[in-house]
Design goal:
Elements lengths: L3 E5 L2 E8 L3 E6 L4 E3 L13 E3 L5 H4 L2 H10 L6 E5 L3 H15 L7 E4 L5 E4 L2 E7 L4 E2 L5 E2 L2 E12 L8 H9 L5 E11 L12 H4 L3 E5 L8 H6 L5 H7 L7 E5 L7 H17 L2 E3 L18
Parallel strand pairs: 4-5, 5-6, 6-7, 13-14, 14-15, 15-16
Antiparallel strand pairs: 1-2, 2-3, 3-4, 8-9, 9-12, 10-11, 12-13
Helix pairs in contact: 7-8
The structure holds zinc ion.
Zinc ion (ZN) binds next to loops.
C-alpha cells in the first residue's frame, strides 16, 4: 500500500495505517517513527522508533528493521518498546539465528510512562499509558503506550524581557536563573486505544498534531470497538470538542469500512467546522518527488 503523507507547519507525517494490516508513522524532520508495521523503506532511515504495543500489524517488521539497517551499513538505531516486550523481542532476534544463520545487531530498550527519552537537543519523546491492554501468551497484560514528541525551549522570564543584551550577560554571570523551560508538544501518537484518561494530558490535547485511532465508524461496529479496546466514532464525537490540537489525524481504520464511507460518516458526526482540522491520515496523498535510492537486498 502506498504510504500517505501529510504536511503541516513544517512537519511531515508519513505512513500506512489500516487495522489488522499495517500501522507505522514516521516524522522525518524529527528522525522519529511510531510503530514498525511490516517495516517499509520509510522506516529504515529513522533512528528512533517507538513501538506502541505488540500486535502483529504494528510490530511484525522489528527483525527486518534491524536487518535492513545493517544491510545499508547503518547503526542499529533505537527501538523503544513497552517494558514487558523487551525480552520477547530480544528472543525473537535470537530465533532468527536459527532461521537466517545471522543475527543483525539490535538495540531494544524499555519505554515507561512519564520517563522522557531525549532524541536530540531540544527534542524529547514522552511515553504515556493508553487504554489498549494486550494479553501475552502467558496471560500477562501489557499496557500499550502512546508517545508525545515534545520540543523543549528555554524562554526568557517575563521580568527580564526589557533587559539589554549586556544586562542579560551580567545576570547570567551572577548565576541568576533567567529562563523558564517551556514544552511544546508537536506530534503525539496514541497507538491503538479506546477513550481514556490519557486524553487529559496537556501533551496530548495541546499537541500541534495529534494522531488518534478511530478503528470503527459504522454504527454496527460498536461491539467490535468495545471488545477490541478500540475507538468508535461515537466516542470520537464526544472527545473532539475537548481537544485543542491544530490538526487531528485519525489512524487504524478497519478494512470493513471504505475510506470514502468513513469520511462521510466522520463529517456527519462532527460537523463541517471540526472536519476542517480532523481527517484520516490515509486520505492524504504523497507529494510527487524524486524517489530516494535504497539498495535492494540480495
Ligand atoms: Zn492493537
Amino acid at each position: 500500500m502506498t504510504p500517505a503523507e501529510f504536511h503541516y507547519d513544517g512537519i511531515t507525517v508519513r505512513g500506512v495505517t489500516l487495522a489488522g494490516e499495517e500501522t507505522y508513522v514516521v516524522v522525518p524532520e524529527m528522525n522519529v517513527g511510531f510503530d514498525v508495521g511490516r517495516c517499509q523503506r520509510d522506516l529504515l532511515s529513522i533512528d528512533h522508533v517507538f513501538l506502541s504495543h505488540g500486535h502483529m500489524d504494528h510490530a511484525a517488521g522489528v527483525a527486518y528493521y534491524f536487518s535492513q539497517r545493517e544491510f545499508v551499513d547503518n547503526d542499529p538505531g533505537h527501538l523503544y518498546v513497552p517494558e514487558l516486550l523487551v525480552e520477547p523481542l530480544r528472543t525473537l532476534m535470537r530465533v532468527w539465528a536459527d532461521i537466517d544463520g545471522h543475527v543483525p545487531a539490535s538495540n531494544i530498550q524499555a519505554a515507561a510512562p512519564g520517563q522522557d527519552i531525549e532524541v536530540r537537543r531540544n527534542l524529547i519523546v514522552r511515553p504515556f499509558a493508553v487504554n489498549h491492554p494486550c494479553r501475552r501468551h502467558d496471560r500477562t497484560v501489557v499496557q500499550a503506550l502512546g508517545y508525545a514528541a515534545i520540543e523543549v525551549r528555554q524562554k526568557l522570564k517575563q521580568e527580564f524581557l526589557d533587559r539589554t543584551g549586556p544586562q542579560i550577560v551580567e545576570l547570567k554571570k551572577q548565576g541568576v536563573q533567567i529562563t523558564n523551560r517551556v514544552e511544546m508538544p508537536l506530534v503525539t501518537y496514541c497507538g491503538d486505544t479506546t477513550a481514556g484518561g490519557f486524553l487529559d494530558h496537556e501533551f496530548v490535547r495541546d499537541a500541534k498534531i495529534l494522531l488518534l485511532e478511530c478503528t470503527f465508524v459504522d454504527p454496527d461496529h460498536r461491539e467490535r470497538a468495545r471488545v477490541g479496546n478500540h475507538m468508535h466514532l461515537d466516542q470520537l464525537r464526544e472527545i473532539i470538542p475537548k481537544l485543542r490540537n491544530e490538526r487531528i489525524l485519525l489512524t487504524h481504520l478497519t478494512r470493513r469500512t471504505m475510506l470514502s464511507d468513513a469520511k462521510a460518516l466522520l463529517r456527519e458526526a462532527i460537523g463541517e467546522k471540526q472536519a476542517e482540522r480532523v481527517s484520516f491520515l490515509m486520505e492524504h496523498r504523497r507529494r510527487r518527488g524524486r524517489p530516494r535510492p535504497v539498495p535492494t537486498p540480495e
